[in-house]
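Hi support team,

I submitted a single chain yesterday and got back a structure, but I'm not sure I'm reading the C-alpha cell output correctly. Could someone confirm the output below corresponds to the sequence I sent? I've pasted both exactly as they appear in my results page.

Thanks,
R.
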Amino acid sequence: MSEAKIVRRGTKGERTRERILQAALELFSEQGFTGTSVRDIAARAEMTHAGLLHHFPSKDGMLVEILQYSEQQDEINARRFSDYGIDRLFAWIIDVVEVNVSRPDRVTLYVRLSAEATDAEHPARAYFTRRYTRIVAALEGAFAEHFVVSPPSYELSAREAAVSIVALMDGLQLQWLLLPGTIDMPTLVRTHLASLGIHVPAHPWIEGPSRD
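Hi R., thanks for writing in. Yes, this is the structure output for that exact sequence:
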C-alpha cells in the first residue's frame, strides 16, 4: 500500500473529507477496520457524528476511498521505474520495502487490513484480491524474462518465484512488527533475489540492477 497519509487539496468540503479519511486511516491502522466505529472516526476528526455522516454515510465508503487513493499512489510510484526495463520491477520491490521500514504505521495498516480481508464479506476483499493478482502477474512476467537469460539453479517456475517473493515480503512484515529491531527486511529481500541471480543496487533509481 502507498504511504499512510492522505494528501489532497481543494474546497472546504474536500479538505473536511481529507481530514475524515486521515482520521479513519490512523484508526484502521491502530485498531483495525472491524475494531473502529464511525463515532471513533468522528471523534478523531474532531467533528460530530452527524457531520461525518454528511460526508461519508458508511465506514465502508471511507475504507473504499482510502484504498482507491492508495492504489492510485502505487501506480504513480511504479511508473518511476517504467523507463528502465523489466528488471526495474525488482528495484521497485526493494524501494517499497525500504519505504516500509520508515513507515511502521503503513505496515501495520496493511497487515491488519489484509488479515481482515480474508473474510469474504469484508469491504477490502476486492481490493486485496485485485492487488495480489496484479502484482503476482507483473512479477511472473519479470521473472519469466529474467529466467530466459539466467535460469534458476533449481527447478522453479516464474509463477512460483512471483508468489514466493510476495509471500516472503508479507511474512517479513508480520515478523518485523512482532519482533522490532530483529528483522532487516531490505537485506532479506535482496538476499532472496540474489539467490535467483538478481542484484539490486542501493539506489535503484540511479542505476539499474545487474544479472549474473
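A quick pointer for reading it: The chain is about 65% helix and 0% strand. Let us know if anything else looks off.

Best,
Support desk
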